[in-house]
Write a structure and sequence with these properties.
6 helices, alpha+beta, nine-stranded mixed beta sheet, single chain
Length: about 200
């Protein structure tokens, strides 16, 4: 399923044509491309995102190089989150894909002004449906700071179960942070009472 749209109203993405390759109830997922590096750089520079995700400021050149490496990595799929208005609001990825073991990790980041509108849950549900509905995954994992309440809520709403805590696993701004470890298994996804992405 593909659909061409033209973004509007975004300082970096205006006028760029994007192909929606996977659609859920309220968002579409468009494959990340090199011209999206400025968007990613802006989102990663947000201090709230930097704290919750454990990022440090990087130059635009470094982010461009990282995006290029990610795009060429066969073990990951990166998408922009695109709601009906056409302006990208965040990034979601399925990383570390191991087809033999059926495992992968999910990553999610939303632009500051688009948090709290349900886009994170919709995007996470969409990439989970991709992993279990189109790819042979059996187990998905995610990690976030234990004090990242919005991320904890999104993961729980999407059916993930907290398995435990990796104590002092992340160093950020001179402090050690605990990471909450979540997982979702294919049988648990099968039992989720919600429409699948392909039913949108």
């Amino acid at each position: 399923m593909t659909e061409d749209i033209r973004t509007a109203g975004d300082e970096h993405g205006a006028g760029v044509q994007r192909e929606i390759s996977w659609r859920a109830k309220s968002v579409g997922l468009a494959a990340l491309d090199m011209h999206d590096a400025e968007l990613i750089h802006g989102w990663r520079s947000d201090p709230v995102a930097a704290h919750h995700i454990g990022l440090w400021p990087r130059s635009l050149t470094a982010v461009r190089e990282r995006v290029e490496r990610d795009i060429e990595d066969d073990d990951r799929d990166d998408f922009l989150i695109v709601p009906p208005g056409g302006t990208p609001v965040g990034h979601v990825a399925l990383t570390g894909q191991n087809i033999v073991n059926g495992t992968a990790q999910v990553e999610l980041m939303l632009a500051a002004r688009h948090r709290g509108h349900g886009h994170g849950t919709a995007a996470l549900d969409a990439v989970v449906d991709l992993a279990f509905g189109e790819l042979p995954m059996f187990r998905l994992t995610a990690e976030t700071h234990t004090d990242n309440a919005p991320a904890l809520a999104v993961l729980a709403k999407s059916g993930f179960t907290q398995e435990g805590i990796s104590r002092a696993a992340c160093l950020h701004r001179g402090r050690r942070h605990d990471l909450a470890v979540f997982s979702l298994l294919r049988p648990e996804w099968d039992e989720l009472n919600r429409p699948r992405a392909w039913e949108a």
